[in-house]
Design the sequence.
């Protein structure tokens, strides 16, 4: 059925008369991506997550993200945006939503492949994004960044009933999750006084490289963020923090390159903002707990297994992140 939908997508939008191949692309933690070759070209076809698309503001969020992508491209960022098909950024085929991109030949780096030079380039790229004037798409409603107090205890019983592999780890860290949640919400309340529009998800999986040139993909999370918070996030990911093996030389490379190119100032209260940084990890954990337990939506076994693995990884990363707070604060204050 999926192939039939993709065939309709291609034919109805004049992307080809003949499909030569449809290949599922690895990667993508929420949506599914396919490499589709036709007699007219090669495309990256993204099938959007049905659960995400049920959200009230899902479509408007995608529209906003494409506006951010377009402005970033206008300002010299190698940003990859969706093709406009019939003046729209997405196409609905039966009950499925699709976005289509020109296929980009590039490489997503593994953690061990990242060099100091890559970190310097990413630090500079982030600064360049933060320097962009996005005033023509300012949206005051989006400046209200919602933060939640997650009810971690509600997941215990269903996780036990379904014998989830992460249940013991979740139970052992319940108090820590509540404490971090409280501190991160308080930090976001402080951070809201200085916000910029940015990518907000600039980790390894969303950057494709052609030699030393980065192409920034997956702008769907674009929105308002405190620039210092995003700097901490990006330095963390590109220095190996997400695999529990942070390299502080690489961390400093990202920070210093950013400082050299950013026209603003890094907030001096990084001891507060570093707590805000961990909120994204908590929100991702909450989302994947819901997915793995089929709360709110039903998912197939493949997506459930993916969500279970993300829960395990998220719990591990959150604990490791907290253990590195003091050293990161020291470097950011240098």
Sequence:
């Amino acid at each position: 059925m999926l192939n039939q939908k993709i065939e309709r997508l291609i034919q109805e939008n004049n992307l080809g008369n003949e499909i030569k191949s449809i290949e599922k692309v690895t990667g993508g933690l929420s949506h599914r991506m396919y490499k589709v070759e036709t007699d007219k070209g090669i495309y990256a076809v993204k099938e959007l997550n049905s659960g995400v698309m049920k959200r009230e503001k899902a479509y408007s969020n995608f529209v906003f993200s494409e506006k951010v992508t377009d402005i970033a491209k206008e300002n010299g960022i190698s940003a990859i945006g969706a093709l406009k098909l019939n003046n729209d950024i997405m196409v609905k085929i039966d009950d499925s939503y699709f976005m289509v991109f020109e296929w980009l030949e590039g490489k997503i780096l593994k953690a061990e492949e990242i060099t100091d030079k890559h970190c310097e380039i990413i630090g500079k790229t982030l600064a360049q994004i933060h320097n962009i004037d996005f005033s023509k798409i300012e949206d005051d409603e989006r400046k209200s960044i919602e933060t939640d107090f997650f009810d971690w205890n509600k997941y215990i019983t269903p996780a036990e009933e379904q014998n989830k592999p992460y249940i013991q780890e979740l139970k052992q860290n319940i108090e820590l999750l509540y404490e971090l949640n409280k501190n991160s919400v308080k930090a976001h309340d402080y951070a809201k006084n200085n916000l910029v529009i940015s990518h907000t998800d600039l980790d390894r999986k969303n950057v494709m490289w052609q030699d030393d040139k980065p192409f920034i993909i997956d702008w769907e999370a674009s929105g308002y963020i405190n620039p210092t918070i995003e700097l901490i996030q990006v330095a963390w990911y590109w220095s190996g923090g997400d695999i529990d093996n942070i390299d502080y030389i690489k961390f400093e490379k990202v920070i210093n390159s950013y400082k050299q190119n950013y026209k603003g100032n890094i907030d001096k209260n990084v001891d507060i903002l570093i707590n805000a940084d961990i909120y994204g990890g908590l929100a991702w954990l909450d989302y994947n707990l819901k997915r793995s337990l089929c709360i709110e939506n039903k998912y197939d076994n493949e997506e459930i297994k993916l969500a279970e693995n993300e829960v395990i990884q998220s719990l591990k990363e959150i604990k490791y992140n907290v253990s590195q707070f003091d050293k990161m604060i020291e470097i950011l204050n240098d």
Remarks:
- The beta strands are 19-25, 32-38, 42-47, 91-93, 96-102, 196-198, 207-210, 213-216, 223-225.
- The longest strand covers residues 19-25.
